[in-house]
Design a protein that fits this description.
This protein has 528 residues and is an alpha/beta fold. Helices cover 34% and strands 24% of the residues. It has a nine-stranded mixed β-sheet with strand order 2-1-3-4-9-8-7-5-6, with helices on both faces. It has a five-stranded parallel β-sheet with strand order 12-11-10-13-14, sandwiched between helices. Helix 16 runs antiparallel to helix 17.
């Protein structure tokens, strides 16, 4: 029997077959209050058995089970004798491995579809009993055309006569649609029914329990030792700081490095957020050591205009500064990092393929090799949305926790070409105007990320009766769920006009403002 005092004990296993939605499956399961982890499909049987899940969800994937060399479900999963739910490719692989037939569809189905019940099923009833629950999201090129023995068809759609199937006796379930995406209106109810009712998980994965568990783990891990943290002002490092402050108090020292590439008033906003939480009694006092390293960073960036070279220069300089300052502290044995679960997943890629490197990511991950410290990573089990939830639970203000993402290299990847101090100063002001107007218009929370970009190309303008020949600012705003794909935000023309007028009128070094209408793909969200 699982230990009911351990919030990880009642857990599900998500088996990843390469779907772009796999992390979304895990996030939805956790929203149901159930802990889960993602393993690649080719993980060893021993690892699956050792994990001992109370249920398994098989993800979708880009491959076809009609081909010989594509992924299959490890038999050890079925030998666990726990409920299994196959989604899209997961359902097709299950059908074929149990003696059914999968065929290529005449027409690839992508988008909304309506399903209807074909036989009684409490599982599918959890979907269809919700108003509008027959609206689901399909994304497949193959479909199950013949049921395996002992399975029944529980739902159908116009192009998929077997849109859902199950073998109730063996607790095996399959759906051709994707319940994890928000387009499937009752997808949450379906996944919740599977996790809570079929797999009998009680739902102890809550922000309060996560915080309590993390504090206990940190205390056990570091004991009476001192810990240092690179506090950037981003969500992850801020939540780590708040969590560690509760766990170990004065044993923690935060180093805030001002590299000259931060947002306007970044240092003041971060300090105010923590001071307010401290004054409200939400957390003990926090020791923050601020290092002004603008001159050092800009010196290392002089003459560097290649995006990758800029990222590497910023990352290596940060390591130099952080290491130098940390060595001045007494008896520090632990380095805290804001590693989150997607970072862990990406480092455990399947042997069947690796993604192309679009751009390198700036992280303090290189520090452990340079410093004689051990790592403490209290967020490494959490998705970003979970980090935000526990940040709010810890008393940090919504204005900090719900801020849009900010890249590790900061404004360095929002200034095209060589970085100069006057460019960064102008960009800081333009970006602050854009964000201020988004907040004033109550549009900030409606977009996923918004920022300004400095384009060092000169354009002629007329301000008053005078000619102005200065650089260009581009505005970027996107809407996305997972940041893997994104649509440019369709902000009102009147709003864009107001922002443009303010930037040009208030910043003499700008002659023109443009709005980026590129989606991802083909563009990336950041310009560099």
């Amino acid at each position: 029997m699982p230990d009911r005092n351990d919030i990880h004990a009642q857990r599900l296993l998500i088996v990843d077959f390469g779907s772009q939605y796999t992390q979304l499956i895990a996030r939805r399961v956790r929203e149901c209050g159930v802990y889960c982890e993602i393993y690649p499909f080719d993980v060893s049987a021993g690892a699956i058995i050792e994990f001992a899940p109370m249920g398994v969800i098989l993800s979708g994937g880009p491959e076809s089970v009609t081909e010989q060399s594509t992924p299959r479900i490890d038999q050890s999963i079925f030998d666990l004798d726990v409920p299994v739910l196959g989604i899209c490719y997961g359902m097709q692989a299950m059908a074929q491995q149990f003696g059914g037939r999968v065929s290529q569809s005449d027409l690839r189905e992508f988008g909304y579809a309506q399903v209807q019940a074909e036989s009684h099923s409490a599982f599918i009833g959890a979907l269809l009993n919700v108003a509008g629950g027959d609206d689901v999201w399909m994304s497949h090129g193959d479909k199950v055309t013949e049921l395996p023995p002992d399975f029944v068809c529980t739902a159908s759609s116009g192009s998929a006569p077997i849109a859902a199937m199950e073998c109730a006796e063996k607790q095996l379930f399959g759906v051709q649609f994707h319940p994890e995406v928000t387009h499937t209106k009752a997808g949450y109810e379906l996944l919740s029914y599977f996790a809570r009712e079929i797999c009998s998980c009680e739902g102890s994965w809550t922000p309060a329990n996560i915080v309590e568990d993390a504090i206990a783990r940190v205390r056990e891990q570091v004991g009476d030792d001192n810990v240092v943290l690179g506090l950037s002002g981003g969500v992850d490092s801020s939540v780590v700081a708040a969590l560690l402050a509760r766990a170990i108090g004065s044993q923690l020292t935060c180093i805030f490095v001002d590299n000259g590439l931060l947002r306007k008033d970044e240092k003041g906003e971060v300090e105010a957020a923590f001071n307010n939480a401290i004054n409200a009694g939400e957390m003990p006092p926090l020791d923050i050591l601020t290092i002004d390293a603008e001159t050092e960073f800009l010196g290392k960036l002089k003459g560097v205009d290649d995006p990758e070279a800029k990222r590497k220069a910023i990352g290596s300089t940060f390591i130099d500064v952080f290491e130098r300052e940390a060595q001045r502290l007494e008896d520090v044995k632990w380095l805290a990092q804001g590693t989150i679960y997607p970072d862990v997943i990406e480092s455990a890629a399947s042997k069947y393929g690796k993604a192309h490197v679009i751009k390198s990511h700036h992280n303090v991950g290189g520090l452990p090799d340079r410093m004689a410290m051990e790592l403490v990573e209290p967020l490494r089990e959490l998705f970003k949305d979970e980090v935000r939830k526990i940040g709010l639970h810890l008393g940090l203000p919504e204005s900090l926790i719900m801020r849009h993402p900010f890249p590790g290299p900061g404004l360095g990847v929002r200034i095209l070409g060589e970085i100069k101090k006057d460019y960064a100063d102008v960009l800081r002001e333009a970006d602050a105007i854009f964000i201020e107007e988004l907040r004033n218009a109550e549009l900030y929370s409606q977009v996923s990320q918004a920022f300004a970009v400095y384009l060092p190309v000169k354009s002629v303008g007329v301000v008053g009766d005078a000619r102005r020949y200065e650089h260009v600012i581009a505005l970027r705003a996107v809407e996305t769920i997972d940041f893997m794909t994104a649509r440019w935000a369709h902000l009102p023309y009147e709003f864009i006009e107001r922002v443009s007028n303010r930037i040009i009128n208030e910043i003499a070094a700008v002659s023109r403002v443009v709005y980026d209408v590129s989606s991802k793909p083909p563009a990336t969200i950041e310009w560099e």
